[in-house]
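Notebook B, p. 112. Complex prediction, attempt 2.
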Amino acid sequence: MRKFVALSLFAAFALGFVAAPAHARRAADPAQAPVPPGDHDLTLRAMHDEMQRSRTRLSLSGVEKPFYIEYRLLDLDVRAVTASFGALVSSTVSRSRYMKVDVRVGDYHLDSSNFVSEDGFQGFLGPTGQVGIDRDYNSLRQDLWLATDQAYKGAVTQMSLKQAFLRSLTKPPEIDDFSQAPPLVKIDPRIEPDWTSRNWDDEAREASSVWKKFPQLYGTRLNYYLIYVTSYLMNSEGTTIRESHTLAAVEAALDTQADDGMPLHNFYATYAATPSGLPGPSALSKALAQAAAELLIFRSSPLVPDYTGPVLFDAPAAASLLAQALEPSLSGARPPLSMTQDYDAFIERLGGRSEWSGRVGTRVLPASVSLVDDPTLKEFQGQPLLGGYDIDDEGVLAQRVSLVEDGFLRRLLMSRRPGPDFENSNGHARSALLSDSEPLSSNLIFSSSDELKPADLRKKFLDACRDDGQQWCLEVKQMDNPALAAIHREDFSNFVGTLGGGLSNGARMPLFVYKVYASDGHEEPVRGGTIDGLTLRSLRNLLGAGNDSTVYTYMQNTSDSLAGTALGAFGSAQNGIPSTVIAPSLLLDEVDVRGFHGEPRRLPLVSSPPLQ
Amino acid sequence: MNRQPRYKSVATGLALLAAAWTCLAANRPPEPATPAVLTAMQDELDRSMAVLSKADPAAYFISYTVADRQYIQVSGSNGALLSSTQNRARWLEVQTRVGSYQLDNTHKLPDRPPSWTSPGNTVALDDDIPVLRREIWRETDRQYRAASQALIKVKTSQQVQVQTAEGAAPDFSREQPHTFIGPRVQIHVDPKPWEERVRKYTAAFSKSPSVLNSIVTFTALGMNQYQANTEGTKLAFGQVHYRLELYVQSKAPDGMDITRYSNFDWLDPKNAPDDRTVFQSIQKLIQETQELDNAPLVDPYAGPALLTGRAAAVFFHEVFGHRAEGFRQKDITEGQTFTSKIGEKILPDFISIKDDPTEASLGGQMLLGHYAYDDEGVPAQDVELVDHGVLKTFLMSRSPLNAIPHSNGHGRRQLGYVPVARQGNLIVSSSKTMTDAQLRMRLIELVKQEHLPYGLLIDDIEGGFTFTGRAQPQAFQVTPLVVYRVFADGRPDQMVRGVNIVGTPLVSLTKIVATGDKEEIFNGYCGAESGSVPVAAVAPAILISEMEFAKKETSTDRPPILPPPAHDPEAREQQP
């Protein structure tokens, strides 16, 4: 598992995006969609013509023809800049186009998808790959032609393996493989990248130079990712979509070691819909200095003792916790049929098993709690929401989904893969870098009907603490995100190693923890704890929620099957899908926190060199 | 040797860690100022050694390497631009050895597979000495800690394991320090004209319906390397290299994958191939592709074979060169074909072989395996491996053998791997030469003597793989890409496909009966334990009295169901 996860950090640039406002319309007929005048992009035309040829003429003798063909293309323009302590580490500009072709044989009830096997078609080029960036006609047709051929042969092979496997089951699943969805046509103007508006290299140098004032820091990284994406989707049902999106991110990591040898880190992240929305160097250096100062406070703080009792999660920490605990249970799609038990075991280990599938209509959360996922929401209390979109990655209109109402499970997030509870998509199929789409959250809103003012929630916390007979209780101000905090390749692997198999049992990593004394409410930073056993069910021990809901923006990690697992909450703009959780501070009862029991790493024998 | 460009995968960028270059620095007057990277290295080297040499366990050797790599890469496929990228990165590698030259943390343990990859990190591009020093300090601590842990395992194992004779050779050789500060090199290339060229070249391939996929890639690489170690070596040298690669894929009617490849390498921008030269190469590849598509499959065959110079060069690289790499003689899991054969005759006495990375070109043509210093800071040396058929020595890195205590400047690696002994420019020469026409006549004579209907002429070889491990048979298999039947009865030559050359090295090498009178150069990348490194192989054509050919594994994936869109009468009308 270690290797598996470590690889994810090296996944190539993936996309994140923010929907550009535009109107979608239902396709009157699945004929070729018009491109605005003056637009020299021949992509849709090439897709359309090769799609038509494949629909009408692609067939192997004696074998069924495809019943569904889907083309996806992704144009990615990425500007990435990294700096450390005021010096530039890398600065790149890239433009690339990726292609993915999906061909299915069978029918909507039983098709060649939703099946994991070790065997399969070994083609010479495969149905995916990097293709030409000229938006020309001829090269794209050539690439689509070969990819469609490979995808069709793959589907035929997969179908026969799947049918053989189904015959071996005493009771084959009755749920359909694929649901119907009305075709959509939406062609937006392309947004072209502009890298010249700001000098990103100099901004990175300037902002990160503030760290030179903190010689106790061992290592630092400040990363800018500016991403322009144009995505194309066309399927044989008549859907034709071209959309452009942008995302801008600043992600920073810094680390050090406490005097007793414990490795410590901190991270900082801010996201904006466009590059111009990112903070300038002076605002950013203030934030980076603060991140450094926070880290150094914890560097000299005492260790967290083992603890069981009430814990107050500040709003950002609560949101991160919810992303980890809730996400695996939001999907209503059934898992793929698998010939390999390893697959199920792997997902299980990562805390990826849904606790809500098959439980619609039952109480799953406290009666005060409601949960909504709304990709159509553009802002919350004036703050833009980056998790939204108009049309999902299967070409289905985004819909607001009311998941939990007054504690009762009502709906689940659906893609076009049906599940035991629901059949049709509600526009939640999401993917990064043309990975397989799966139902994922967008803007997830957790709300409580009896919200308390922060002062009242704190009072309740201290009361609970005293009632529990404790001198002090713990408050978590921020949760860790190892995908952002890992400077070195091995750091993320170490983190996953630390959590070990605990993910499925609710192991969580807090970053900043404080002891809060019941007597007078004063705070004292402590370091090094792990939360144990905090699963979805623990949310039933909710003692109270604040009225301080805030927007927590994060990138869902979709590499290596992590999406929809507890680790899916840890991504970066490099490989993630922009998402938000809107949540208030939460007071939970009976939380287990385990102090640091590991072997501390000894301090460097050679003292650190001067930074100035 | 692996000459296949990677398929257009998402991971292409990562694969580019491979580096190729040729040294220009050695011929220029040294720059007076010490580069900032070297200054930072020296500061940290002094500080670290002062402390770590007295620590427990004590470090006895520390080395720092920074590879400052600038590249421009322009790639096209099927008539369109695939990517056009420019990048520069500095990669730091720290080696901290604890214990002693005789026994240190790198000692190979029977129950622990060796680690071929080497840790490292990207570091600042700006010449900010305090920031560079901090990165070096961090990595030194990391590597010292890893080395300390590894040494404990080595010492434990020493107490319980039986030691072999070669296992008792020292783990590391002590070498003379070298100082060289050359000027910094840079590449100046406008990518725009190359973007047009790769479009044009790949569009030309698309004119043939046989070509399913084409990729043309231009790469300009400027590499500045900095090395410093506690023995006193201090190096800064730069190298540039330009390369154009043409690659096409096809499928024979029975599904067999057909690939053709050709490459141009040059050092000076003015020596870039012109359009005419490239188009000639494209036409040749198209023609070969079409011929191969329609060529008959050949049955397994054993008999005389003639290898052209380029094919012979690859053959020697695979069959002899890899077995002459010193570290294989030390490893008890290796077959050690030649380990005990120094001073013995292993080839016909008219053949001599050397590996000479000090030469940048031969007869006006670039040699890709040239370098001035190897990746362990040792100057490249011209090593005579075989003198008139007699094996003289092995290619050596700083991992010594009992009989060969020092490096001969062949410790090489791709960035991110640990250096081992590798080939540079493998040069085969012969004192028994014939003209091409005479060689061909001799081939036909041999065929007739054996009462065979035909012999085989191998014009191009795709590296393939060589087993050198002890657990596998001591066999090699190389895949000839272009093979002709040469008939005894004088019929014209016929192209065939679907065979691999198989055999055992000791036998095959002794069956060389004659060689051609012209040397041919093969430039390529060789993938082995220490990653992919640029190499050249030079050889005359060789005639082998008996060579064995086996059927090649073929793909079950048939050619595409529909015709190419550009060659489909129904689809063509749609073109805008």
